[in-house]
Amino acid sequence: MPESLPGFSRRTALRTLAVTALAAPIALRPLTSAFAAPTASPLWHPNPATDGLKAFEGIEADRGNHHPDRKYVVVEGGDHYRFNIWADDRDTTGGGDRQRTESKGMVQNGTTLKMRNGETWTIAYDMYMPSSLHGTSKFTHIFQTKTPSTNGGPWVTIDLSRSGSTEIIQVRAYANSGSPAIAKTNLAPLRDKWINIELTLTPGSKGSASAIIRSGAGSGAPIAAQGHMSNVNIPDQGDYVRPKWGIYRSVQSAKSDILDTYLLFRNYTATKA
């Protein structure tokens, strides 16, 4: 367990890691089209220090109230969110086979932002993954998109998985046949430092998704993986598509991969084209 997990009194020390063994891009489009920077002002740009957890529609953690003394999602250091999870946590779904610490939705100044069919949204943020957060043989989602009214999905996810001893981070069209990767790369070089994630999503039953995983903080950091996919199943189902962040994972993976751990997020933005 990270030393700062119980009290959150110490900031996690950052250290530089070399980015190696990067996977080849998948189904790439030119940077001037699929990955062009948005020109509109962000509709969602929460400030952790002033917005706190009001930046989200809600928090899903310890829904069975088994550990009321634990702090699952907190503002740390005034500039980022910390999502904690413990190995003995269990969610109320799945019959005890999974655990969850997630935020859901995007709220700006009290207004919930909703992604609907045919709209194109770009969501970006910095993320810090410690060495205690492992890729697993069963599912580990650190980002999901779902439809609230139907509980439909997950549609597009970011997963931490493994193939033998190699751990992988991948953005996936999870609801498509075979849950293909939109972009993926080795996880190890991206741990223990701030990295950047950028997703461009157009909801619909035949929507589209682009993804960039950067090996450092901010939009100018080197690209570790990127890709674009059409005919991605991201339907609003007459409601809207809602993003979720945090750790949602099966505990049926190897015990050595289910550790007390956390995720950090900062600099959230969401822009509609």
From TrEMBL:
Which keywords appear in this protein's UniProt record, sorted alphabetically? Signal
- Stretch forming the signal peptide: 1-36
* InterPro entries given in the database record: TAT_signal
Q: Which domain of life is it from?
A: Bacteria
Any idea what this protein is called?
Polysaccharide lyase-like protein
Q: Which organism is it from?
A: Kutzneria kofuensis
